[in-house]
């Protein structure tokens, strides 16, 4: 199988590395010094599941150098999807499968605005990994897992084919009964902690230990659930409690990647998290006052970060 991994950060680097290590023809799109080190020395992955090093079939920043792929895995940020999807148009074949793994609730919708709907799956992943230095990915925590499926939840031949490929590479994966519910469950957690983390600039334990901020987090999560339900996603009080069990179990000092981007003055997923909830709430007639407060407070910093990138 010809596989393209677009974006060789923590997510794309780990999963792309595993697929290459299993013997698949993996091409990688990367940038800058990270790309140069991969081209010279290969991609190094330090993992709690075992270290390895791979030489991808092709490592480039130029998509025209990539053979037409059977499977494209997107390891980019959700806000990058529209521009990357436009770039992918030139190499999408009749049966190419595109699998997004980004955080966010509307990545599938963003992709089908640009690419043929027949080529797109819905998906998400669980992993704690990052670029430790150019050419090296560090997988620091969590059993890596990909959850994916057809948007209509049918068990299609191509879904089972991707399942087999991931199995061969030793990547835990799951085809759920309702992929949209799984996407929103993760989104509920990540959107609840990310914006408020960026606003307060403290780790999650400091937020949850504050009675005021803990309530603010909970109220934000309730708004997200109401927006999801208005969109037909079967979220419930049970999912709210599950999210806060995860929040309460996070080690001291934990921060979310979007929070770190905000604190470092980088473009973040604010628009796709709290901003998305605010905009969808307006469309659907759902009040989102807590998410609006977080979003509007962070929006000027986000605008400045995007202008400077």
UniProtKB/TrEMBL annotation:
The keyword Oxidoreductase applies. It catalyses: (R)-pantoate + NADP(+) = 2-dehydropantoate + NADPH + H(+). Catalyzes the NADPH-dependent reduction of ketopantoate into pantoic acid. PANTHER family: 2-DEHYDROPANTOATE 2-REDUCTASE (PTHR21708:SF26), PROBABLE 2-DEHYDROPANTOATE 2-REDUCTASE (PTHR21708). The lineage of its organism: Bacteria, Pseudomonadati, Bacteroidota, Flavobacteriia, Flavobacteriales. Pathway: Cofactor biosynthesis; (R)-pantothenate biosynthesis; (R)-pantoate from 3-methyl-2-oxobutanoate: step 2/2. Pfam families: ApbA (PF02558), ApbA_C (PF08546). Residues 178-302 form the Ketopantoate reductase C-terminal domain. Signal peptide: none annotated. The keyword Lipoprotein does not apply. Belongs to the ketopantoate reductase family. Its EC number is 1.1.1.169. Residues 3-152 form the Ketopantoate reductase N-terminal domain. It comes from Christiangramia sediminicola. Keywords: NADP, Oxidoreductase, Pantothenate biosynthesis. This is 2-dehydropantoate 2-reductase. InterPro entries: 6-PGluconate_DH-like_C_sf, 6PGD_dom2, ApbA, KPA_reductase, KPR-Related, KPR_N, NAD(P)-bd_dom_sf.
């Amino acid at each position: 199988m010809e596989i393209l991994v677009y974006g060789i950060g923590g997510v794309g680097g780990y999963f792309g590395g595993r697929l290459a290590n299993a013997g698949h023809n993996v091409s990688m799109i990367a940038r800058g010094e990270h790309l140069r080190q991969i081209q010279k020395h290969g991609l190094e992955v330090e993992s709690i599941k075992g270290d390895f090093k791979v030489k991808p079939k092709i490592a480039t920043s130029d998509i025209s150098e990539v053979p037409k792929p059977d499977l494209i895995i997107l390891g980019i940020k959700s806000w990058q999807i529209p521009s990357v999807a436009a770039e992918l148009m030139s190499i999408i074949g009749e049966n190419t499968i595109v699998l997004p793994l980004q955080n966010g609730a509307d990545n599938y919708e963003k992709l089908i605005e640009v690419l043929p709907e027949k080529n797109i799956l819905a998906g998400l992943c669980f992993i704690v990994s990052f670029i430790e230095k150019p050419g090296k990915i560090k997988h620091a925590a969590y059993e890596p897992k990909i959850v994916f499926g057809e948007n209509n939840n049918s068990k299609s031949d191509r879904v089972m084919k991707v399942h087999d490929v991931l199995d061969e590479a030793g990547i835990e994966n799951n085809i759920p009964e309702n992929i949209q519910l799984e996407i929103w469950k993760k989104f509920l957690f990540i959107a609840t902690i990310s914006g408020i983390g960026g606003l307060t600039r403290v780790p999650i334990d400091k937020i949850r230990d504050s009675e005021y901020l803990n309530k603010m987090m909970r109220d934000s999560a309730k708004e997200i659930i109401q927006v999801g339900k208005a969109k037909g996603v079967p979220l419930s009080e049970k999912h709210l409690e599950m999210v806060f069990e995860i929040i309460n179990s996070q080690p001291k000092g934990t921060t979310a990647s979007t929070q770190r981007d905000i604190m470092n003055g980088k473009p973040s997923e604010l628009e796709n998290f709290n901003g998305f909830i605010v905009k969808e709430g307006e469309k659907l007639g759902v009040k989102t006052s807590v998410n609006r407060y977080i979003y509007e407070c962070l929006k000027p910093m986000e605008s400045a970060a995007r202008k400077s990138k």
